[in-house]
Amino acid sequence: MNKRKWLFVCVAALFSTVAYSQLSFADSSDSSTTQTIDNSITAPSETDSSENTTEETADSNISFTESTNPTSESSSETSEKPQDVEDTQVIKQAIHIQKIISSNQINNQGSQVAQQEGINGAKFIVYDITNILEEMSQDDNEKNQSVEIIESKLKDRAKKLSYDQLKKVAEGETKTIDDQEGVIEFSIEVPANKKQAYYIVNESSPENISNSEDIVLLTPVSNEKGEFLTDVWLYPKSEKSEPKEEIKKVVSTGVKKNFFENCWEFFAQLFFDN
Fold first, then answer.
1. What are the b/e assignments for 207-235, b being 16+ CB within 10 Å?
2. Which CATH entry fits the domain spanning 90-238: 2.120.10.80, 2.60.40.10, 3.30.565.10, 3.40.190.150?
3. 3-state SS class at 215
4. Is the CB of residue 229 less than 8 Å from the CB of residue 109?
5. To 10 degrees, what angle do helices 130-137 and 147-159 make?
6. Residue span of the signal peptide, if any (predicted)?
7. What is the tens place of the pLDDT at every residue in 23-50?
8. What pLDDT digit, counting tens, does each position of 181-208 carry?
């Protein structure tokens, strides 16, 4: 009886041990399976993360490309837009000064007037007074004035200066050029968008010919249509005066004649002149 009981206890213990081992193995298998499943689930997550990283990198590349494209478009637009380049056009003009005999000033707008009585041998000097013009342009009180007023003020300022203070650019005497008497010429090259000022002085004239008034010339000169002239003609007027008659003066020696000399002259004129 005791042996059976002991045998029963041993069988029960063995069964319990086997059952426990199976349960532990099952739990271990389930845990391993669960971990494997979790790992399999986690792996796609990493793949997703990698895909997300790729997508973020792609998005970053797209974002960089997009941020770069506006610059390219801006550069393209800038290259297509015309640049504001300073007008560097230079105007060449030949200035012809013809000293004429006239009582009226010719308003020719720079154009040539034919059949004028010119005077040869008159000396003219041309000064550049652009610096005075620039000083006036910086004064607010001198802005928005007519050309006539500007020329008049320039002339007044230039007259107050000595010739040594002015910049001489040309000088010479009038002569016959292309069948036109009384002409002196000089050439200038000036910017199209910037005014230059010249002060023209008639320094001397032939005998019995008056000097012409000083002239201020603003260049470049254009016609009524606003077109720049290639040749600019100026006609400073002058007048001719009649030569003065020479008056002979009797010079006294200061020696008085005596009574006998006066009598002799009286009888000589009385008898011999007849």
1. eebebbeebbbbbbbeeeeeebbeebbbb
2. 2.60.40.10
3. strand
4. no
5. 120
6. 1-21
7. 555 555 554 444 443 444 444 444 444 4
8. 999 999 999 999 999 999 999 999 999 9
